[in-house]
Write the structure tokens for this entry.
Amino acid sequence: MAGMTSSARPLLNRRLAGFGTTIFAEMSALALRTGSINLGQGFPDTDGPEEVREAAVRALRDGRGNQYPPGPGIPELRTAIAAHQQRRYGLSVDPDTEVLVTAGATEAIAASLLALLEPGDEVVALEPYYDSYAACVAMAGATRVPVTLRPREGRFHLDLDELRDAVTDRTRLLLVNTPHNPTGTVLTREELAAIAELAVERDLLVVTDEVYEHLVFDDAAHVPLATFPGMRDRTVTISSAGKTFSFTGWKVGWVTGTPALVTAVRSAKQFLTYVSAGPFQYAVAEALALPDAYFDAFRADHQRKRDLLGDGLRAAGFEVYQPRGTYFITTDIAPFGEKDAYAFCRALPERCGIVAVPNSVFYDDPEAGRSQVRFAFCKKDAVLTEATSRLRHLAP
């Protein structure tokens, strides 16, 4: 047939074989098709602070950001990011050479891994992990080496001995996510100190995904890995505005690190989006300067939402692993006599009008998370209350 090629080579780059439509797109489409409550994808159902939204409107009307912003990000936002790191964590960052604005944290992760990895390198990552990690490691031609967070006593835990054993002479980089999606784990200061010691001892680079830095609950505290001895010069720190200010569609993220690290990441980032979100950058600069009262209330509100949904899940019969951070609760469906979380999630809309996400897709070995299901609690109280009511239909 005209236009056909005789080659048997697949159209898709072999490095991306196995990476189809993301589970978030699949489950959100299922929610739309069935009219179910979507507790699968982690996006809020309300906008963030009105003053931040109005700041974006002002920027649009004033013509700020309507054309290409500077490649590294507008100076106002880079300065605000540096001030945030200093105020919150005592990290001194030069806004001119040590900050790079990206199209959300997802692009920051992609640019960092594409910049810092070469074929043959190994990347040690905590699993279950955000699905873009595996795809980005694959696109860089590197090999991912999972270290599995395992449930114990109602929470997920990191085995530091297993982490140390995973590092080989081929390991180039540790990819660390805390607060951790999907398990809600917040690594302790002691765990982070051990990771830092390992990185220094084995001369490893570290990329840290800290997008949920302002969503830590109970007695947990977020401590950036870059604050530990020996880590400032080897750590790429990533965060974003979407989760903290409930404007996930704006896609404003950032990278901080030494000039050498940021320059390397920028070299890859400039050939991805180059720039993005011009007017929104001005708004996020104002958002980062909000008083501590905003961040405190934001955290307290989400802790309350966590408890509301968590209580409903327990009442419905799920085993609940209490998250200490993020938007998410991971559960186990074994109490229902079921083992296949993917099949469970596919059937859940018919059973009770709820959509959730199977954690098995976040593991290299799906069996490790075969019976785990993740629910998002970043929703209106009325939605969570209705969801808990519907979930009661599952109770044994």
Summary: The mean pLDDT is 95. Residues 292-316 form the longest helix (25 residues).
